[in-house]
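Ops channel
N.P.: pipeline sanity check, posting one input/output pair.
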């Protein structure tokens, strides 16, 4: 029987395979440990999320509630979306469009207020940007601030301004 000697690259390949199999065992252990860590982090992440929630200067309102407040002259409603979004859907009745990307965003919101203590309600598409900007404005000393978490298009918080068939005005550049 004629047996060929093992080629050097095959010996290296087999050694790599053994090493890879050992790494897979370690990876599985690490995976289980990582899963435990991820669960712990998720639990603390939930706590961090709660800590990032509205401060005492911030509150939330539904679109119909804020519309009533705007009509009564009690609240300044600011639509913080982009101009292309305003063009697509229109702007909530009574809202002042101020693009959140402006360098002077906080100053523009302050300038739009009728009085220094007039409550400011922020609306965006789905409540994500408005929530973030309520925190920014609160840090800038603008209060009280109201977030509209449903936004114009709806979110987990509710159907939104448009699906509630609330009035909008066309936006023209």
């Amino acid at each position: 029987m004629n047996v060929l000697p093992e080629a050097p690259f095959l010996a290296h390949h087999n050694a790599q395979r053994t090493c890879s199999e050992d790494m897979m065992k370690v990876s599985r252990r690490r995976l289980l440990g990582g899963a435990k860590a991820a669960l712990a982090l998720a639990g603390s992440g939930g706590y961090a999320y709660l800590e990032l929630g509205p401060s005492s200067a911030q509150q939330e309102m539904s679109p119909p509630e804020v519309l009533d407040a705007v009509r009564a002259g009690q609240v300044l409603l600011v639509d913080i979306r982009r101009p292309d979004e305003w063009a697509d859907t229109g702007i909530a009745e009574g809202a002042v469009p101020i693009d959140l990307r402006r360098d002077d965003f906080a100053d523009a919101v302050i300038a739009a207020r009728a009085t220094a203590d007039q409550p400011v309600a922020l609306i965006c598409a789905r409540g994500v940007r408005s929530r973030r900007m309520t925190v920014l404005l609160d840090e800038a000393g603008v209060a009280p601030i109201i977030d509209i978490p449903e936004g114009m298009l709806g979110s987990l918080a509710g159907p939104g301004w448009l699906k509630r068939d609330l009035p909008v005005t066309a936006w023209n550049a």
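N.P.: looks fine end to end. The chain has two domains: 1-52, 58-169.
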